[in-house]
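Researcher: Next entry in the queue.
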Amino acid sequence: MNNDLIFIVYAPRYDSKSGGSIALHKLCHIINLLGEKAYIWPMGKPQVPQSPLISWIFRASAYYISRIYRKPYCVRQDFITPLAQRNDISRAVIIYPEIVNGNPLGGVFIVRWLLYKPSFYKKKINYLPKDIFFYYQNAFLDSNLSMINSGPLFVVEYFRNIYRQWNYGSREGVCYIIRKGKSRLDLPPKSKLKNFLIVDNFPHEELAQIFNRYKYCFSYDVHTMYMTYASLCGCIPVVIPLEGVSKEEWQPVQKYTYGIAYGLDDIDYALSTRELLISRIHDDEEQNHQMVSRFISVVKSHFNF
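Model: Structure for this entry, 305 residues:
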């Protein structure tokens, strides 16, 4: 172990309803469990004055003013996720999620982690060609990226103590997931949506109750862990297909389609592969440490640590 090397994960506050937040904090936690040193830097928190100074003053002011009305920054109590200090940055590998523009911490060793497809976001995000990147799943790869592809980094949290099936009796009705599908042109009008049970913001425990009560869950977000949660509870998750996007284009890796229907015509497939989903989840959880160990090895080799 290199005692001088540390990892800083640039992450929003921990939010159990945000898959990206969960993944970033858990990555930091597992790096520490593996004997390395990893810290969290609160997303948006200014580092030091950077050129131009007026731009830094604006960002710093916005961050500290926002603390008046935002919830306090928090981490998950059962994770090892200490907060980084400014003097840690110069010797750290900085891990940015794909939504971060440029290099706000001014770090030297930069890693990008694609937790969603970069082209989904309407704003232009500047990456540097010398940066290396890892991707959460193949579906998030983007052919237009000029960075160095360093392979997959899949860190999972399925809340298995919460999401499980206990209702084996009758079910009826449909609940809905919108989340990142809120800008889709085929989304029903607001006048109709208000009559839907939209589960985007329910706490996990309450969501598990809903998924054990309803027969179907229709999702306009085509890549969300909520569909897996639904399947674990015996609900049938149905992705509303994107126009012109085939099932293979939606998800090129078959094992990540288990238990999920891509359109109403695919429901039999979802039912027939649910047991395969449960088996895959067990394997994913077992591989968490292996994936992060590989990540550490690749990063050290690339940056010559």
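Model: Residues 174-272 form one domain.
Researcher: Noted, moving on.
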